[in-house]
Amino acid sequence: MSKPNFKSRTLARERSLQALYQWQLTGQALQEIELQFLAEDDEHRDMKQADVAYFQKLLHGIPAQLGQLDGHLEPCLDRSITQVDPIELVILRLGCYELTQSEEVPFRVAINEAVELAKKFGAERSHKYINGVLDKIAKTITKGSAKVSP
């Protein structure tokens, strides 16, 4: 089995962001959302170029680790987690998940990908906020972990 390329992982992150945002707002079952995304043929949800396995890992892994992820996020936020913009919250959770649960993803890649998601989907300056929060998390994780970014 070949290793997924960078673009396919980026697309998997984008689609999982969209799917998790849908889940967060509607409370719809993850399995239903997953089927919608995998069945969609429109250009906004085209999964042909995405790393589907990674999309599924993020889609199911983030909700399964929500308490732990929010536990990492809360001390690094300048406001209550309930006051964070919904799209920014999904991006922060996704970035935090990659920092804490995806050993194959270097810290710099996880943070950069989250920043790029914020530039594409978030408010005008949300990318700076995302970068700051995830950088704090990466520094706290580095102190107690062997995971090192290149």
If you had to describe this structure to a student in words, what would you say it looks like?
The radius of gyration is 15 Å and the shape is globular. With 150 residues, the protein is mainly α. The protein is 67% helix and 0% strand. The protein contains 7 helices and no strands. Helix 1 (6-26) packs parallel to helix 3 (52-64), helix 4 (66-73) packs across helix 5 and helix 5 runs antiparallel to helix 6 (107-121). The chain has a single domain, classed as Orthogonal Bundle (N-utilizing Substance Protein B Homolog, Chain A), CATH 1.10.940.
Structurally, the number of domains stands at 1
User: In one word, what is the shape?
Assistant: globular
CATH topology (level 3) name = N-utilizing Substance Protein B Homolog, Chain A
Percentage of residues assigned to helices? 55-70%
The total beta strand count reads 0
Largest sheet: none
CATH level 1 name: Mainly Alpha
Distance N to C terminus: 25 Å
| CATH architectural arrangement | Orthogonal Bundle
- Stretches where pLDDT is under 50 for at least 5 consecutive residues are 146-150
How many distinct helices?
7
Radius of gyration (Å): 15 Å
Structural class: mainly alpha
How would you state the average pLDDT, rounded? 89
Layout of strands and helices, then pairs:
Blueprint: H1 6-26, H2 30-39, H3 52-64, H4 66-73, H5 86-101, H6 107-121, H7 126-143
Helix pairs in contact: 1-2, 1-3, 1-5, 4-5, 5-6, 5-7, 6-7
